[in-house]
Each structure stands twice: as structure tokens, then as C-alpha cells.
Description:
Chain A: Keywords: Membrane, Transmembrane, Transmembrane helix. Chain A is an all-alpha fold. Chain A contains nine helices and no strands. In chain B, 42% of the residues are buried.
Amino acid sequence: MTAVPFFAPLIVEARKLNRSLAALLAVAAPSLIAIFTFFNLLRGKAPQPWDMWIVSGSGIWAFFMLPMSVTALTALVAHMEHGPKAWDHLRALPLPRWRLYAAKTICVLALVALMSAAVLVMTWGAVTLGAAIKPAVTPVGDFDLARYAAIFGKMYLAALLMIAIQMWVALRYASFVPALAVGIGGTFFSVVATSAKQGIYFPWQMPVNMLATEAWRANTALGLGFGLGVVALLAGLAHLSRREVL
Amino acid sequence: MTAAIETRDLTRRFKRHLAVDAVSMTVPDKAVYGFLGRNGAGKTTTLKMLLGLIRPTAGTARVGGVDVARDRIGAAAKVGALLEAHGFYGNLSGRENLDLTRSLLGLPKREIERVLEVVEMTEHARRRVSDYSLGMRQRLGLARTMLGAPPVLVLDEPTNGLDPDGIADMRRFLRALPERTGATVLLSSHLLGEIEQTATHVGILSHGKLVLEGELARLKADLAPEIALQTDDPARATALARARGFEVLAADDGLVARLKPGEDARTASAALTRALIGADIAVFAIGARSRSLEGIYREVSPPVPVSQAKT
């Protein structure tokens, strides 16, 4: 056997995902926000600023659709192996196990990044289309792409701790129930306590805190979400690689 | 010559349960080694330790001379494994499934055609695995173990769940494997007939201990033959045979009288026949036969007593 290319596990994961329903999920979640925004716009009578539409779309994404999408994506990626009981085969192969888990994590991170960008693009598209159909509600003000992209980028980085937790639970447990329970529970508290002060310490609420008006809240949530997220991702990879799958 | 697989005092404990107890086994190069034992005897746990999937509590395991605990990746590079759970992706074709593993192993594309030909699956390779029969999945699993032509193949219960035709088909493959691949095969099973028809060497695991190991033909030759007999009065026949120094056991098809080592089977059989007839016991059938693997197995691997089995 020759030396295994470093990126082989990543390419293999991408090929497996390509034949799964991950693409459908990646399109469905941003589309739902865009559809909601589109009909909400058509209900209006007076024009609203671009800021209102984009902040509204990013808010829905951050406190509900992002955690739900991460829950579904991590469960899907993990169950590609749990379902057919493929772990023994994969873990017996002559390559470092952490690369198998890292490949799955990178795929999830890439998909979430694509979905974040899709929410921004589709929200813009929905508002533009709605304004074309009903010119009376054409948004006012500038469409500040750089600012909006920065908001979505920070939300993405702040979500890292939540993604690391969901990823670990989904890969650790063969049943999808623990991963769904954690994801649904986290999203539930994110929705019912969106404006809670303690939200900056709660992984599922860290992304939505990027919209906080007080800078320290946004910065704290970003620092904790990203910093602890990196640590949790590495710790999760180390634990999964070393643990025995009985 | 380095043994293909060698373990020394390999032990694995799960909390209070000792699953594998100081197993020292040697699988010679190019052998088909039948790893026998009842369900729960510790076969799969031993195989998982050989593959580096679980760590031993004590002892060592070497594959192709490489210590699995010290260099898992080096040892894994020498093994192809077919485990009970195949781990195939049902939504992909057989070829695509093989290609995923080929990519992970960094092998050239032509490897897929080679292994598909070995297991005679080329014509089915484009079908989705979810449409495969269990026998076809087992063959595809065998093909996957052969990717990269590893010198050792570890096959865990490869005939489990197969119908009689599938079992016959798999036996044919297993017998031909060393010749086709040049590999050493470690084959675990609880089916005696399967091992007797395919293995050159056997190791018998009982309650986590390796109770017998050796070349199958030699093991059978070393044991004294036995006399199988059917009579109209098994109780009297048993008493009479015992009085003449035979060890007598009840078998499914009558009685079995064990000879002493070195005793001539034909002479003993004739003497026993004369004695039975002289005692007015009708003899339906009598004849010497060599010991079967089943006989060896039953002797060295007693079942768990009911009281212990419940604990």
C-alpha cells in the first residue's frame, strides 16, 4: 500500500455527502427563511429599511434555524456510519482515526458556512423579488453587504462551540436520540429565552448575541463561542479517536 | 519464519467479566486458521484486539511481526478484515463502496477490478448494495478485505446468515483464498463443519481460553479412533463395552466406544462385535472411524453449566 493522501478522508466524506440528502437540507433551511421574508414583505404596506429585513433574517437563522440545521447535519453525517455500522471497518483501516472524524467535522463546518452565506443571499433575493412584485414596499437605505456579511460571519464563528458539542454527541452515540435531544433542547431555550442576559454563556444562544446592541455582549459571546469551540472541537476529536467502540 | 499472527497471554476484561483469558495463539504463514468457539467464547473480542479496535487488558498481539499496541497503523496495513457488521453504504453501488475504501488506502483504481474478479462480482458491481443479497454482500466484503493484497485476512463469521447455497459458495471461496491471494486466513466461526472443510489449522476458544490449537490433520491423526455402534439394547451394550475397558459415550446416532491410544481399531471392533453377539445383543451397525473435529471440539470445549450461564 502507498502512503495515504492526507486529504483522502475529506474527499471520501464529501463523496458520501454528495449522495446523501445533505444538499437538500443545506438548501431547505435558508429557503424557508427566504420564503418567510418574501411573504412578510408582501404583507407590508410601507417600505422598511434593508437593515430590518437582513437583521430579521439573520435573527431567525441565529436563534432557531442554525441550531436546528446543525442538529440535523451532525446527526446525518454521523449516521452515515452509525446506520450501516461502518465504524469498525473505518477504524480498522491503516490511517490515523482523528482524520476520519476531522473530515466529518470539516464537511459540517463547510456546509454550515455555505448555509450562512445562502441565508444572506436568499434573503436579499426574497426582498428584491418581493419589491419587484410590490414596488410600494421596496426597502429603503443601503444594502450594506460588508456589514451584513460580517454579522453572518461572526454568527458562524460564535456557533463553533455549539457545532462542536452537537458533533461530539452525534458521533459518540450510535442512536440519534441523544443528538436530537441535545439539539432540540438547546434550540428550545434559545427560542424561549432569546434575550436572556445569561444567553452569552449558552452555546445555542451565542450566535444570536452577535445582534446584541451592547458590544461587550457580542464580543463575549463571540470569544467564548469561537475560543471554547476550537478547544471543544480538538478535545472531541482526541476523545473520539482514542475511545473504544465496543 | 515469522508467524502471520501471534498473541502472547492476550487478555481482555470488561469490568468483572473476563472475555479473553491469556490467549497465546500462533497462526502460521499461509495457513487457513479456523478460530472455533461458541457464541460468547471471546472470538470477536480477540479479533477486535488483533485489529486494534479494542485494547488488551494484558498481553501482546502481533500481526506480520508488528505489535498492534505499539504500531496500530503498521499492523493494520498488513490486515484486511471482514467483520460481522459490513458497514456498506446501501445507497452506493458495490464499486462505489469499494472505491471509498480504495481512496482511504491510497490504492490505484485497478485494484477494484482485481478484487471484483477474485470474488466473481464484476457483473454486479454497478448495482446498489441495498439491492444485494446477503451472500453478495459477503462476497463484496471479501473483495474489500483484499484491497491492497494484505498478507493476512481476518474473517469474522463469514457464513453467518447465509442460506445453504450461500454457505457452499462461501466455503468454495474460502478454500481457494490462500491460492488466489497468497494470504494467511484467520477465520472465526462457531460452525464446526465449516471449519473442518476449509481450515488447515484450528484454535478452539472456550470461556475465553484457548483450549486447543494445532494443525487439523495432525490433531485428528494423534487421537485414537473410535468405534461407532448401534444396538437394540444400548444400556447393556454400554455396560459390556465398559467391562472390556472401553470408554463409552452416547452419541446422536447410537454409542461411541473410544479406543486406547495405540490400540488397533479393527481388532478391537471385531472383539467388541463378538462380545455383543455372545451376550445376545442385536448389532445393527458397528465400525471404526477416525475422530471428527466435532468430537475434538466437544471434548475440549464443554458447554457452560446452566447455573453459570445465568450469571
